[in-house]
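Trying the structure run again after the queue cleared.
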Amino acid sequence: MVAALACLAVAADPEELEGEVVEIQDIIEDPSSFEGKMVVIQGRIERICPAGCWFIIDDKTGNLYVDLFPNDFALPQNKRGSEAVVYGKVSIRDGDPYMIGEIVKIGKEIYR
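Done. Tokens:
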């Protein structure tokens, strides 16, 4: 019975994270074609703000600012250096692309 309960506790990844992964370089090179679109990116978290409400992710083709504040969640500081998969909307501010993150997966943890 315990094993059955443990199986029920395992949750599948959100289906949004199962979309095709977009390289950050593609977003940087042609931001207007991605503006307003929901995309999946993945890479290493290079920097996290002190409150955890934004971070910089690098996928070896480029890096992108991910803003979590509009969706009212944050990442713990100890996630710096972790590999992450991020789902969110591409926006442009002052000519530069960035992402408004809706879902972040780090290891088996889901933040939203």
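The helical segments are 2-9, 24-29, 31-34. Worth checking whether this holds up in the mutant runs.
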